[in-house]
Amino acid sequence: MTAFDRRITPYREDLAAASLKGKVDAPRFVEPELMRIAVPALGMRSAPRPEAAYTTEALMGELVRVFEIRDGWAWGQLADDGYVGYLPAEGLAPDHGEPTHVVAVPCATLYPAANIKVQPIITISFGAKLRAVGEAEGFVAVENGRFAFASHVQPIGPVGQDFVAVAEKFLGAPYVWGGRQWTGIDCSGLVQVSLRATGIDCPRDSDMQEKGLGKALDLTALNALRRGDLVFWPGHVGIMADGETLLHATGHYMQVVREPLAEVVARIRKQGTEIRTIKRL
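and the corresponding structure tokens:
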């Protein structure tokens, strides 16, 4: 059997995607049911248990290829980045068509009426996708009788050209392993959300990003870095905000911060770690 990355391959010992027939051995091959994230966000887990750690997070409107629903858990694959895992089935809904708008501010609220004085229903994060059904007095009417403030969303497409500016929207956001939203995000999630928002395809995890993004620079280029360069060391990735400052979601401060790269290098060196790769897009 061909080696593959389980994180992005819809395969289990008992079940596999029909697209993998002839490539893997499984007793059952299944065509997916297309569903979408119907709540602000859903954590994807490596096992169908509430105590299992997040592997990533899916935001409202994301498409999911679901291969099985059992005991309240959906096993599926996120269409955007191919990540595979378990999602609470109650947070999914049938796919009724492509979203039309995307949240373009760190957080946006959805209202039950086109009126800023009514109590919002839910808060959704940057990158969440919505399907518009009309307009009303400075609001965009979306499915399920909800309204988004018009200036907080935009038609589906890139949100600007500078992915670093997108990442800077998350300054101060809490560090959460597996997170991809303003209420909690991790290092590779920050890179992925920011790049994808500007139309650049990006895998989920830092090792995938290290392997698949950009052109590697010589490590002696630490004195010649520029805005947008990606800096990797084992288990981590950060974004250069300028030639000397690293922007990253870090467990050291438990939030998204900007700090001098020289201080970061000194800190990780004390921990026995060195910068391993620098990538320029």
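(Above: one complete record from the training split.) The chain has four helices and 25 strands.
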